[in-house]
Amino acid sequence: MDCLWVGSDVDLTTLHQYRMSERLEYRLSCLNKSRDSKQCQVNFKEVKSNSNDAVTQVNRRRRSGTWPRTRSLNAPSPIQQFGPCGRIMKNSAMVMTIQDPASQRLTWYKPPLTVLVIKKVRDVAVLSPFFQLVQWLIQEKRMVVFVEAQVMEDSLLDQYSAFSTIKDKLMTFRDGKDDLTDKIDFIICLGGDGTLLYASHLFQESVPPVMAFHLGSLGFLTPFQFDNFQEQVNNVLEGNAALTLRSRLRCIVMKKDQKGKGDDAAGKKPTNLLVLNEVVVDRGPSPYLSNIDLFLDGKHITSVQGDGVIVSTPTGSTAYAVAAGASMIHPSVPAIMVTPICPHSLSFRPIVVPAGVELKIAPSPGSRNSSFVNFDGRHHQELKPGDSLRVTTSIYPVPSICAQDQISDWFDSLAECLHWNVRKKQKHLDELTDLTHSSSNDTLDSLDQNESIEKDN
Question: What are phi and psi of 131, to 5 degrees?
């Protein structure tokens, strides 16, 4: 029994005391009150005091290390009672507080005043919708509009004569230089899926609600159409919308010379990023196979030999991961996907692990080459032997606003963008009557001859 609890947060003695006190409490509550009531009350008080002491000892126990399990925000609340005896331990530190996805609705505590408009760059087709939206938000809704400084430098906007009247009212920022934390109440994306990924990149902690309009190439993550944008934006500003909490991955790169230190010799902090789609570790330009060790909560699981490995969120399951053979997972499912890229093994299949685990990825000590890592296609860097990448689910999801609801939006995207399960339907039996009269010995030539005879007759 002792070996089953190695590394647990609760020692066996405390756990045994707690369970014994719970069992005695349950038995005492079932006794007849008229039989030895006074003695039962004394025993109950003693049991309850022992139970409180045990709970206090449990609360004092904390998870070791700096990577505690995160709380999932997206799954239904678990049942805490199992039959007449079994139940989850009544300790707030050991029971996850999680939420039903169907109850996730947008609520404004106060009317939003500032809005960030993210436009797809180098796309002339987005200029007109961008101008219409920005003009309406400033003149009609009286909101403070933020845009990227690079957007204002686009000379093609000068073709709209009315743009000069609102140009001075726009607030600008530059990525990497200006901090938008606590300045934005609402985000509107105009373009494709890349605009939503960019919004996630801009906010590395709490993210304002994101409303994404489909004006790009694929549009899997952009459910809104721009035709009647005034009505749709008004509905959102009134709080009449469902939300999909898209989980993100917290990724930290630990260099060999940084272990045990806050900064390296150059004064740079360890890479600490949140990604919405996936983090990819591959062989880069090397001709040799990647040899990557994979750890799960500190336990070595396997070594990846191939082109690399993809660690993705459910949102990213329909991106690079599905192209590498993974399953498509609804974004409300609390999970992390691990997908090998062209593994040198026919039995290495993609796996799905709980959202609260910690993954550690590191080049194997005997690897012939280094590995390379990128985060949502950004921040490409090298992982040398001795370096490691730690990945777990972040507590800061991306609140994506639904056009209809969580289920309808996702399956509509599967059908429209990926053409999921699209094929020609099998013909009805009534349409195959000409074949029902043929026997197994008939050939195509004999069938043709029979048809010609019938025509002659």
Answer: -65, -45
List the Cα angle 241/104/212 in 5-degree steps.
45
CB 250 within 8 A of CB 274: yes
Q: Tokens 């099998």 — which residue?
A: 426
Cβ atoms of 178 and 156 within 8 Å: the answer is no
Bridge partners, 362 (sequence order): 293
Question: What's the farthest any 2 CA atoms get from each other in the chain?
Answer: 107
In this structure, which amino acid lies at residue 20?
A: M
* 402 and 422 Cβ atoms separated by less than 8 Å: no
Residue 387 annotated in active site: no
Q: Can you read off the two tokens belonging to residue 131? A: 């101008």
Spot the catalytic one: 193, 282, 376, 409: 193
Q: Six-digit token pair at 121?
A: 């760059």
Polymer length of the chain: 457
Report the interhelical angle of 12-29 vs 37-60 (nearest 10°). Answer: 150
DSSP strand pairing (272-275 vs 249-254): antiparallel
Cβ-proximal residues to 221 (8 Å cutoff; 6+ apart), any chain: 193, 196, 212, 315, 400, 413
Mean pLDDT over the full length of the chain? 80
**Are the beta carbons of 145 and 170 closer than 8 angstroms?**
yes
Residues 6+ apart with CB under 8 A from 125: 215
Residue 182: name the closest of 200, 205, 199, 201 by CA: 205
d(CA 180, CA 202): 8
Angstrom distance (rounded) from CA 68 to CA 297: 10
Amino acid at 220: F
Looking at residue 23, the DSSP 8-state letter turns out to be H
Q: Which two tokens stand for residue 367?
A: 């690897």
Radius of gyration of the chain (CA): 30
Structure confidence by residue, pLDDT tens digits, 184-239:
999 999 999 999 999 999 999 999 999 999 987 778 999 999 999 999 999 999 98
Amino acid at 97: T
Q: How much is the pTM?
A: 0.75
**Quick one: DSSP state of residue 91?**
-
pLDDT digits (tens, 9 = 90+) for 124-140: 889 999 999 999 999 99
Angle at 54 between CA 51 and CA 55, to 5 degrees: 85
Type of residue numbered 205: E
Residue 138, both tokens: 């400033």
Q: Which residue has the tokens 């760059």?
A: 121
Q: CA-CA distances (angstroms) from residue 10 to 67, 134, 286?
A: 18, 56, 46
